[in-house]
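Q: Hi! First time asking for a complex rather than a single chain. Here are the components, and I think there are two in total. Is that enough to go on?
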Amino acid sequence: MNWPVFLIASLIAVALDGSLVQVLRVGDASPSLLMFVMVYALLNASKRTALRAAMVAGLFVDLLSPLLTDADGSTVVIVGPHLLAFALGAAAFLSFRNLLYRKSPLALAFGCVIFALLVALGTTTVFLLRSMFTGDAPWGDATATGYLLVGFARAGLTAILAAFLLPTLDRSRALWAFEGSGRLVGGAAR
Amino acid sequence: MLPSRWLAVWTNPLALVVSIPTAPITHFGRAARDILRPYNQPWDLNSPEALALRSEVDLYKTLYAQANLDREFLERSLASVGAISARGGGPVRLVECSIVGTSAGTSGGTAQLLRLNAGSSLGLLPGATAFLDNDSIAGVVGSEISSFSAFLVPVERLSGIAVRLFPDVPKSSDIASYPGAVLRPTGRGTWSAEVASGAALTIGMTARLADERWPRIALGARVGEVIAIEPIEQAPLASRIEVRPIVSANSISSITIAIPESQP
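A: Yes, that's all I need. Here is the structure of the assembled complex.
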């Protein structure tokens, strides 16, 4: 996989997630372009590369998600919750990606649902454990359940968005230089 | 699980570095979002004239409340003139800046932190108060400030704000006749507070900042609006109120930040 392309795509996606994508917001949930890009990479890259890419994407989210630690406005950047959750989602996704067809929008949408659900579960779990020690949590005075449900709603919205955007992203497949993409035809992922 | 205070020494600067390339994209995205899906105001304002008039009326109400609150604090601490002048009484510098994005991540249910396109190069300081439309508090500047960007903590994320509740048309100049309250977040984007006062509480009352911990320029500014009142069974003379923030984080596109100037 071409890492510079992945890094640029991830940065653009995470930047748009915090701004333009909120046009598609339903309630408190909005789809995630970063997860769409991530699942596209997971579906096509080699397993080791895909896992590393997921951790890098999670790191980007962590770095751009400062946590409010005090009512007076103090913030701190915690590296870990999203990184671990993305790694968890990627590991689970890679275990069954052979069953999916790489070029099918439905397969990508299904993958987005599974990946986003696991990311929501992983993130909430890590933050919940952390909040037991420090009291800081991204849901503020709301509940972890609400935070998790928003993550689930995000999974559905991301899947719908991914199904529509796959043909557009797939036009740039040559740039991504996935391993073996020149030899394989569209079909089940390796 | 690691102590975040130790990690913050390097994670916060690293986050600022990563935020640099994303800033132009978020700025563009935010502008496009505002065009494609502007925030729907919960009230119906028909004409620009009505909007301007309402804004002007609110501003003068704020000035009136601010003057009353200021007088109360001055009378209380008349014996110490020096302390009065030091308590936010100095000059302030105003910085107007735009919201260029929100904090990334999967946080939902509560307002995210907002990224500003101004930073320490314009003199932003942690804890500086941000205003919308001159008289409504939008939030405070967060602790992490880079040269060209900073985070704004929306007012609905803040806790323990001391306010006074004013009716739509103030009937008395005696500030003590208006009930006070300390707002605590409910987790639903609103605050709740218990008010023990003989004064009549009505839905629609305006909660104005009366917290001495805030800069003096923020005193009397609008914080929220009472949307529900219910009695407390255990305390018949007290009531529990629910207050909705005047400024919603989703509705902000630009704000004005008041930075206290250092005394010579």
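A: The mean pLDDT of chain A is 82. Let me know if you'd like any chain examined more closely.
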